[in-house]
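Appendix B, example 12.
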Amino acid sequence: MSQCMSSLNPPKTLINPKISIKNPSLPSIFTFKTKPRFQKLTTISASVISSQNQDQDQDHPPLSLDSLISSSRKDELFGSIKSSLSNCLSETNLHLTVPGLKSKTRGKVRDIYDSGDYLVLVTTDRQSAFDRILASIPFKGQVLNETSLWWFDKTRHITSNAVVSSPDKNVTIAKKCSVFPVEFVVRGYVTGSTDTSLWTVYKKGVRNYCGNVLSDGLVKSQKLPENILTPTTKAADHDVPVTPDEIVKCGLMTQADYDEASRKALSLFEYGQHIALEHGLILVDTKYEFGKANDGSVVLIDEVHTPDSSRYWIANSYDERFQNGLEPENVDKEFLRLWFKDHCNPYEDEVLPDAPADLVCELAWRYIFLYETITKSKFEMPLMEEPIHDRISQNVARALASLQ
């Protein structure tokens, strides 16, 4: 990015979510992990803390892909997931049903409402990647909202956040703040499939990315010597990598605010990696967003360490698979990205193929699996007797009335 952009964060072009239920013949979603990418590796340090797995007792074996592919918990939930394919929360209109809501802003995943003193953030089931909407995933909004709330609570020792309350499984009410137009992307590994991912730019020959000098000889999925920050901002309808100097020079943030936010982002990521590893997972990369509160403090907003904003791998199998040139076993939406890249050009095609129902259901299960693995809490299926939009409207109206 050689010069400052004239327009930041413009409205994004969204594609209507579509789900195909009529194509049950779907290639195994796990075939993406079976092809070696390179024949020979130079001697490198690629280990995740393996002693942790050795210390686990026999009653709590290391997390494995088997527990993700087939388990009694998956069998228990899969019927509800399939039956909810046509009942996803793809759109909300609370400004028409809740008194006092002044306007609606539709993001990729969240619908944001202005209530005057507060913002009402509704996390929908919309699934985004490649800067567009791919499908709607059952229960995804609830998983993201409850995952973020868990992390917001656990990271208060690192940074304050904007959360006021959560009156509904899909809703967070937050304090208003001035949002910085920068996403703080933190990476611990060389990987990714999008245009701005570290592996994509590295294999094109880039060796200085967002101010980080990268050595030659790195391979896909390799652990970086240290975690790095690769911030992005918005131009037109896509993310643009920027350097810290450009962020300050273009007036996106002051130097002091950037320094504080970047320090918090790296601390959050290090803490997130520690917690993930305790639960058998590797937090590979993630993004954070920050805002400035009325008192001038820099606060964490949006979401934290969710499967939407983060990449997770299974720790127990990482070393062996990496040394054998195999993709790590992932527990996030990467397999959905790869499916679309195999079947279309998700950046340029005007119309995308329908997301197969089997793929959508698998992603819904993975999101729930990740929530339960990280939080050690059982995901509570919402009661389906009451329409989702009616339930949310009533809960938000009561919550806003109590805040007056």
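The CA atoms of residues 100 and 245 lie 41 Å apart. Residues 5-59 have pLDDT under 50 and may be disordered.
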